[in-house]
Amino acid sequence: MSLAAISWIIGIVGALGVAGLVAIAILAPTIFLVVWTMIKDFVATRLGLAIVAGAAALYLGLVVGDINGRREARAICDAAQKRAEEQAQQRDNQQAVIADDDAKQREHQLDQENVSLKEKLDAYQKELAARAQAGCALGSDDLKRM
Description:
Blueprint: H1 3-27, H2 29-44, H3 46-130, H4 140-145
Helix pairs in contact: 1-2, 1-3, 2-3
């Protein structure tokens, strides 16, 4: 049985004991006085006081242990979350570098294509300027090449 289960059992027994005493005090005051006197007489002895002090120390130890255990588990969880966030940030940075490299390569390709098309356009405009026709600048051969 784990310590958490023991803590729950002690808590339930304590709650039922207190709730039972309150119920007896409300519903049967005479019985409550008898039970209360028995509890007081038991705690008045060294053995009774030792048992109550031991039970209180055990319960307090379980509660403190539970709190510390939860704190440690939370610290482990927070550390794992921080590591995951750092890894995600690194992955995002790597993806940004990759995307930037791809964009630069594409930009370079488009610049080369632009230069090539501009050279073709300049050559075509020189050819059109060299023609003597003033009426229509485009001929059937020109339209076919387009």
